[in-house]
Amino acid sequence: EVGKEMYIVNRGRLQVVADNGKTVLATLKPGSYFGEISILNMGTAGNRRTASVRSVGYSDLFCLSKQDLWDVLKEYPAAR
C-alpha cells in the first residue's frame, strides 16, 4: 500500500505486526507515531508501507498527510 499519511497515537494501544499477522514486532502507545517512513521516502521501498499496524481496542489517532507536512515545511524551512 502506498503511504500518503503518517499517524500519531493520541490514545490507546496499537501493535506493529509481521507479514504473518501474528507476530507482534512492537507496541505503540500515546505519543508514538508510524507511517513517517513512507511520507518522507526514507526507505528503499519508496513511499510504500513497510509494516502493518492494528489497534488493540479503541484508539484515537492524529493523521498528518504528506501534502500538509510539505506545506508546513515550505512555510517553516528551518524545521527541515
Automatic annotation (TrEMBL):
Topology versus the membrane: Multi-pass membrane protein
GO MF, one example: intracellularly cGMP-activated cation channel activity
Gene3D superfamilies listed in its UniProt record: Jelly Rolls
Localization: Membrane
Name the UniProt record assigns to this protein: Cyclic nucleotide-binding domain-containing protein
A GO term from the CC aspect: plasma membrane
Keyword line: Ion channel, Ion transport, Ligand-gated ion channel, Membrane, Transmembrane, Transmembrane helix, Transport
PANTHER family: CYCLIC NUCLEOTIDE-BINDING DOMAIN-CONTAINING PROTEIN (PTHR45638:SF4), CYCLIC NUCLEOTIDE-GATED CATION CHANNEL SUBUNIT A (PTHR45638)
Entries under InterPro entries matching the protein: CNG_cation_channel, cNMP-bd_CS, cNMP-bd_dom, cNMP-bd_dom_sf, RmlC-like_jellyroll
Signal peptide: none
Domain Cyclic nucleotide-binding: 1-80
Broad class of the protein's primary localization: membrane
Highest taxon listed in the record's lineage: Eukaryota
